[in-house]
Amino acid sequence: MVLFFTRWITHFCAPTFVFLAGVSAVLAGQRRSTAELHSFLLKRGAWLIASDLLFISLVFTLDPTYPVQVLEVLWATGFGMILLAALLRVPLKIIAAIAVVILLGHSYLPIPFLTMPASMLPFSKTRFIFELYPALPWASVLLLGYVVGHLYRDTFAAAKRRQILMRAGLICCLLFVVLRLINHFGDPAPWSVQRNAAHTLLSFLNTTKQAPSLLFFLMTLGPVMILLAVAEKLQGRFVQILQVYGNVPYFYFIVHLTLLRIINLLLIPILGLPYHATDDPLVWQAAGFGIPLWQVYIFWPLTVAALYYPCKLFGNYKRTHPHWWLSYL
Question: pTM surpassing 0.90?
Answer without folding.
Answer: yes
